[in-house]
């Protein structure tokens, strides 16, 4: 059985399990693109059409199963779907690694960077993130640091060749995470991934959030930070984004965002190098790691890094 046939067989088995019409028409509608968008790199996306209607289904790639907690991804997706900020989850089949959602329709597509840089779109995106933060909460906390540790172990086990300075960056990331843990925060459900391809845009310019693999409950500023990190290259843009979120840009909030962005970038650096080493799929995983590594280097070399950590620990505005 070919790889594609295996994905389809798992999907058809899941559809039967949740009671979908027999003999549906299935179409692979999202081709994987690792760099720069991480589009469909962890799941294959299908549109399913039958007499009873249509749905959208995601099938987990087998090589990503060590990193994705299926049950948590399903629960976070279900909670987000209940807010209206994301498509509703219709069913989940853990055995096949399949999540089934309402179909947004053919007028929707994955966003590109230029879509989200259009005037007014950041406010719309922030509104969706706030809906998730205020919505039903999964019964677990998510931890980017736990995700990093899982990848550290995988990289060691699988003999992944990491950048020469990885031990130094690892130490910086550990110190940054420790500083962030000193904050008093009110945890909330989060999206957990800021990449632009995890936002859907319609032909009318509406937005929805998708892919809650890294969702759960934690500091909502994490969502702000990793979104800014994907959208903007310049400090003044970050500060404007923080003002749009919070009404003002306190120095401590800017520091928090920079530190969370480093944590997230290091995760995707390790992910890119690990996936590029272990996956048989012909995607440019390593390019993702090289790009986020560049951002990690810029952050750990920034002379303000220690000051940001002190600000966060002391809670100074």
Automatic annotation (TrEMBL):
Membrane-crossing segments per the record: none
Domain of life where this protein originates: Bacteria
Cited Pfam families: APH
Chain ranges of the Aminoglycoside phosphotransferase domain: 85-259
Signal peptide span: none
UniProt-listed InterPro entries: Aminoglycoside_PTrfase, Kinase-like_dom_sf
Protein's UniProt name: Phosphotransferase
